[in-house]
Design a protein that fits this description.
By secondary structure, this protein is an all-beta fold. It is about 0% helix and about 15% strand.
C-alpha cells in the first residue's frame, strides 16, 4: 500500500484494523505525519517493510511497533526524531534486519537504556548518518551480534573514541 506524497498529518488509531492483515509493505513517506500512536500497526502482522521517510515525526513512543514481528526493514529517515533512548522503543520488532534513521535530530548522546536491545538478535544494518550525535555511551551497541553495517558519518562525534563505545559488537 503506497500512501506516499500526500498531505496526511496523522493516522487514526484503528485505521489499519482488520482489512489489511495480509499487507506486506506500507509506504507513508513524504507526508506531514507528526506522531505515531502506540499499537497503530498492531493489526499489520505480515508487514515486511514500513517506510515513514520525510514526515514530521519528532518522538517515538514505546510499543509503537508492537505486532510487527515480521518487519525486516524500517525506514524513518528525514524526520525530527531527537531521542533514541528507552527499553521498549522497538519492542515487537523481532525480525528487523535494517533500521534507517538518517537525517533526524538524534543526539547529542546515545545513552542507556538502549532501545537496540529489543532488536539485537536480528539487526544487520543500522544507519544513523547525519544526526546530532556527539557522544555514544559505553555499551550502547552491546548485543548487536549480527550487525554488519553501522553508519555514523556526518554526526558531531567529538572527544576520544575508544573500544567502550563499540563494546558488544561482534563483527
Amino acid at each position: 500500500l503506497n500512501l506516499s506524497n500526500n498531505q496526511l498529518t496523522g493516522l487514526a488509531l484503528h485505521v489499519f484494523d482488520g482489512s489489511l492483515k495480509s499487507l506486506t509493505e506500507l509506504d507513508l513517506s513524504e507526508n506531514q505525519i507528526e506522531s505515531l500512536h502506540p499499537d497503530l500497526f498492531v493489526d499489520l502482522g505480515n508487514l515486511v517493510e514500513l517506510h515513514l521517510v520525510r514526515n514530521q515525526i519528532a518522538r517515538l513512543e514505546p510499543n509503537t511497533f508492537r505486532g510487527l514481528g515480521k518487519l525486516k526493514k524500517l525506514r524513518m529517515d528525514e524526520n525530527r526524531i531527537g531521542d533514541l533512548t528507552g527499553a521498549d522503543l522497538f519492542a515487537g520488532l523481532s525480525s528487523l534486519t535494517s533500521l534507517y534513521m538518517m537525517r533526524n535530530e538524534i543526539g547529542p548522546t546515545l545513552d542507556e537504556p538502549s532501545p537496540l536491545r529489543q532488536i539485537s538478535a536480528t539487526l544487520e544494518e543500522l544507519y544513523l548518518t547525519k544526526n546530532r550525535i556527539e557522544h555514544i555511551a559505553p555499551g550502547y551497541f552491546a548485543g548487536l551480534v549480527k550487525l554488519r553495517l553501522l553508519y555514523l558519518d556526518g554526526n558531531k562525534l567529538n572527544g576520544p573514541l575508544d573500544s567502550a563505545q563499540f563494546s558488544g559488537l561482534s563483527k
